[in-house]
Amino acid sequence: MIKDSELITLDEMKNFYHEDIDKLLHKILSYSRKITSCDAGTIYLKENKFLVSKILQNDSLLNSTTNKLEKKLNQLKFKIEQDTNTIAIESIIKNKIITVDDIYLCKEFNFATAKSFDKDYSYKTKSILTAPLVNASLNEQIGVIQLINKKDTNGKLIPFTQNDKEFISMSSYFISLSIINITKIISTLSEHNNILEKEITIRTEKLTELANKDPMTKLFNRRYLQDITSHIINISNRLNNPIGIMLIDIDNFKKINDKYGHAIGDKVIISLVSIFEKNIRQSDISVRFGGEEFVIILPNTNKDNTLKLAEKLRLDVEKQNLKVIDKIIKFTISIGITIVNKKDKTFESALSIADKALYKSKENGKNQISFIEKH
Question: Domain range for residue 282?
């Protein structure tokens, strides 16, 4: 599950509108580097047929040094054309995330600029993750974010992970949206101040909807799920990885509410969410889909692993003794499962299969898991 600390908050997004483009890009890059635990990074923006380096961050260099380097890099332009063997150009042309574990062992791309930088500043560039920034509404690339030298908790340089790729892929929509919005605001501020204020309000409201969470469980809500569904399909296709979907329903929840009251019913829901949090990964997405119905999205997860996790959740719920004042409440869950793959044109079609699987679990006696294979 993506944690609160790993999300760009609504307040941060609001602040982006009131600051210049460089401050925005530095915030985005700092945020991305923090989540992926890397030492350095750059952001390039597309200007006509060129990629232009806009900002640089490097924790191993003095701030004064990176500031001077930034000014030099701003003067460099990289033409967007085929067969340059440049990783940033390849990423934007092919519209895909590219990772390299060690640039000195990689023969696919030309890292002459990075190697020259290493020599001049006694640095050692190793791993790189490069991802396109895409204007989703126009399906058009606006730039590239590049992260450099991932580190483990001991400071050792390690390759970027699948979770890093999924995080960047999921975040690229918000990053691009922020850049597009601030660019438009800067370009028209002097002439259209009143219009901009209205646009800011509208966009802030949209971002509020995107960031909405269920107030009781703090999980993402149904509206958020609807807003990211097309992006989920794009991720599955781009990375050529399956995505597991679990649709979960609390069995006989109405009887629990009728017998013990809605306050205890709420505690049952909260206890179930606690079990989710203990079992799912950082990259997974939990959604409160309805009153007692939940959706869990599992990126890069095949059928076997989805079934394994579902059974773990089911058993943990079944074994739980929820103590509320002087009462011990026991409850169970039913789960419907399917897998998103390239055959799925929409996320909704995959979710409908999971719904049929959930109905099958209910019909067969509840407290069980059903999987329906798509043909």
Answer: 213-371
